[in-house]
Specification:
Number of helices: 14
CATH architecture of the largest domain: Up-down Bundle
Largest sheet: none
CATH superfamily of the largest domain: AhpD-like
Helix content: 55-70%
Shape: elongated
Strand content: under 5%
Number of domains: 2
Structural class: mainly alpha
Radius of gyration: 22 Å
Order of helices and strands: HHHHHHHHHHHHHH
CATH class of the largest domain: Mainly Alpha
Distance between the termini: 22 Å
Oligomer: single chain
CATH topology of the largest domain: AhpD-like
């Protein structure tokens, strides 16, 4: 499909149908883009649709990753969250799956706490700080790597914080829900997304995910899904443009 920006009404209708088929929604901003820059809309649908539909992840897993990305405190995109949560439930995600994802969303910032505490420890005299309790170390070994949490410095400087954090990691999620490998995919997408890019956490999660027999292709697809969150900035701009006096953009068109 190749359509210049001076598209006919028939070509625009074709682009709209293609976009909805690829992305599963149609909103006022897409109507504005269809009228002003249909080529953008056409190529964006191909680009974003490729990451969502080409790869080994199931549609359920793709939609759950989108739920995580849109719900993330680094994005908080409610309309996208509504679209993808609805679709996730339609393609087989359970209530427990959704709330397992939301639990992982709430943990996203803790990796940065661990990394910042590691830096603090570099400048702190730990010679008189007690070693990590054996029981606490066992919990760190069991849970830390699965959540990209390097907790050694945290546990030495504030073992109480490490304990309550691990309680939240272990007991704050639903009793059922995602598999450990699926949780790794969600966390990789969160840490790899440009809105909260965390290379240290990515390294830990990739190592964990590969040990869970996830393939590089599965991990790559999870990484790719975060990039087109950037279109939400385009959506904002298109919506504001449509409100400008004299632009003559009717976003109420079917």
């Amino acid at each position: 499909m190749s359509t210049p920006d001076g598209a006919t009404d028939a070509a625009r209708a074709q682009i709209k149908a293609f976009f909805i088929a690829q992305r599963g929604y149609w909103r006022p901003w897409t109507e504005t883009m269809l009228r002003v820059s249909p080529g953008f809309l056409q190529q964006y649908a191909r680009y974003a649709g490729y990451a969502a539909r080409t790869g080994p992840l199931t549609e359920r897993m793709v939609e759950l990753i989108y739920v995580a990305l849109d719900a993330s405190s680094s994005h908080l995109f409610e309309s996208g969250l509504h679209t993808h949560m609805k679709r996730a439930l339609e393609v087989g995600a359970t209530q427990a799956d959704i709330f397992d994802v939301l639990h992982l969303v709430s943990l996203q910032g803790v990796a940065s706490v661990c990394q910042a505490t590691d830096i603090l420890a570099e400048f702190t005299d730990l010679s008189e700080v007690a070693a990590i309790d054996e029981q606490l170390q066992g919990r760190i070994d069991r849970l830390g790597s699965a959540h990209a949490l390097a907790l050694s410095a945290v546990a030495r400087l504030d073992p109480g914080y490490a304990e309550v954090l691990l309680d939240f990691v272990e007991q704050g999620r639903p009793g059922a829900g995602l598999t450990p490998a699926e949780r790794s995919l969600v966390q990789l997408a969160l840490h790899a997304c440009f809105t909260a890019f965390n290379p240290g956490a990515i390294r830990q999660i990739v190592a964990t995910a590969l040990s869970q027999d996830l393939t590089p292709a599965e991990l790559l697809q999870a990484i790719q899904l975060g990039a087109h969150l950037a279109v939400h900035g385009t959506a904002l701009g298109a919506n504001v443009f449509g409100q400008m006096p004299g632009t003559d953009i009717d976003t109420a068109a079917p």
